[in-house]
Design goal:
Blueprint lengths: L1 H8 L3 H8 L7 H17 L7 H7 L6 H12 L8 H6 L7 H14 L1 H6 L17 H17 L4 H9 L3 H17 L5 H11 L3 H18 L4 H11 L3 H10 L12 H12 L3
Helix pairs in contact: 1-2, 1-3, 3-5, 5-7, 7-9, 9-10, 9-11, 10-11, 10-12, 11-13, 11-14, 12-14, 13-14, 13-15, 13-16
C-alpha cells in the first residue's frame, strides 16, 4: 500500500504522483488505487481540504482513472455513510462512478470474507449513488466481490469457481465478470488454469470475457501490458490486448441515454455483443 502511504504523507497530490512514478512500472496501477483510497479517506474527514480526489482526477492520472475509482470505493467502506456525499462530489462522471462500488465490494469481500463470501451477504437497498434501477448498485458491488474472490481463492480456478457457484444463480454473472477482470489484470494463473476457469464459467463465459476486456484496456492505456495480459485475453476473450482495448473504447456508450439502463451496464452489454464468436 505504498500509494496509500504517499497520499497520507504528501503535502500535495502532485508530490504523491511523483513518488508513485518512482515505483516499478508494473505496480503503479495498484499504487494509484491505494493513493485514491488515502485521499478519499482524507476527504471524508470533517476538517481540512476535501478536494484531494477531485485534484487527483483533474491532474496527471497517468491513465489510471479506473484504478483511482476502485480506490475511492475502498475508502467508502471505511467512512461513515453520512460522509459519502463527499465522494459523490469527487466522482461525478456517471459512467465511471459505478467503479467506486466495485472497489467497495472488493474491500468488503477481502476484509470481511466470512460475511460477504461465505455467508453471501447482500444489502437489501444500497443507498449510493442513488441512481439507476433498484438493485443495480448491488450488481456492481458483486463485480467487486468477484474480483476479491480471485485472491480469496488463491487464484485457484476451481476454488474460485466453487465459491461463485455456491451463490444464487442471479448473482453469478457479475461475480464471474469480476473474477475475469482480476485474472487478467493481476495475473497469477497459467494457460491451463485460465482454460479451467473459462470452462467452469460455462454460460457465464461472456461475462468473464467482458471483465478480461476491461482489465486489458486498463493495462493498454497505461502502457502496463505484460506477457500475462496477452495470455489472459487470448484465453478468456479470444482477442489480443490491443483488440480488447479497441472493443472497450468502441463500446463506450454516449454520455446520455433516454433509457433506464445505467451507462455502465450499457457499456458492459456492448462489449459482450462485440466479442468474436
Amino acid at each position: 500500500m505504498n500509494g496509500y502511504a504517499y497520499a497520507a504523507a504528501a503535502d500535495t497530490v502532485a508530490e504523491a504522483q511523483d513518488r508513485i512514478a518512482q515505483l516499478p512500472w508494473q505496480f503503479r496501477g495498484f499504487a494509484y488505487e491505494g493513493a485514491a483510497m488515502g485521499y478519499a479517506v482524507r476527504d471524508g474527514m470533517p476538517v481540512g481540504n476535501t478536494r484531494h480526489v477531485t485534484d487527483l482526477l483533474a491532474g496527471r492520472t497517468d491513465g489510471h482513472i479506473y484504478m483511482i475509482h476502485f480506490g475511492v470505493g475502498w475508502a467508502m467502506a471505511r467512512l461513515p455513510r453520512f460522509r459519502w456525499k463527499t465522494l459523490g462530489a469527487a466522482v461525478p462522471n456517471p459512467l465511471f462512478r459505478w467503479l467506486v462500488l466495485d472497489g467497495y465490494g472488493f474491500h468488503q469481500a477481502y476484509f470481511k470474507t466470512n460475511k460477504y463470501v461465505r455467508r453471501q451477504y447482500r444489502e437489501p437497498r444500497f443507498p449510493w449513488p442513488g441512481e439507476g434501477p433498484d438493485g443495480y448498485a448491488n450488481r456492481v458491488i458483486d463485480q467487486g466481490i468477484g474480483r476479491a474472490m480471485w485472491f480469496v481463492g488463491g487464484a485457484d480456478p476451481n476454488r474460485v469457481a466453487d465459491m461463485i457457484d455456491r451463490f444464487p444463480e442471479s448473482r453469478r454473472a457479475d461475480l464471474y465478470a469480476g473474477s475475469g477482470l482480476v485474472a487478467t489484470y493481476a495475473g497469477a494463473a497459467n494457460e491451463g488454469e485460465l482454460l479451467t476457469f473459462l470452462h467452469r464459467a460455462g454460460t457465464y463465459a461472456p461475462q468473464v470475457a467482458q471483465g478480461s476486456v476491461f482489465a486489458a484496456a486498463a493495462r493498454v492505456e497505461t502502457g502496463l501490458v505484460t506477457e500475462h495480459t496477452g495470455l489472459a485475453t487470448r484465453v478468456l476473450a479470444g482477442v489480443t490486448p490491443e483488440q480488447a482495448a479497441k472493443i472497450f473504447h468502441d463500446a463506450r456508450p454516449a454520455s446520455k441515454t433516454n433509457g433506464d439502463t445505467p451507462l455502465f451496464e450499457l457499456w458492459r452489454q456492448h462489449i459482450i455483443a462485440a466479442m468474436p464468436a
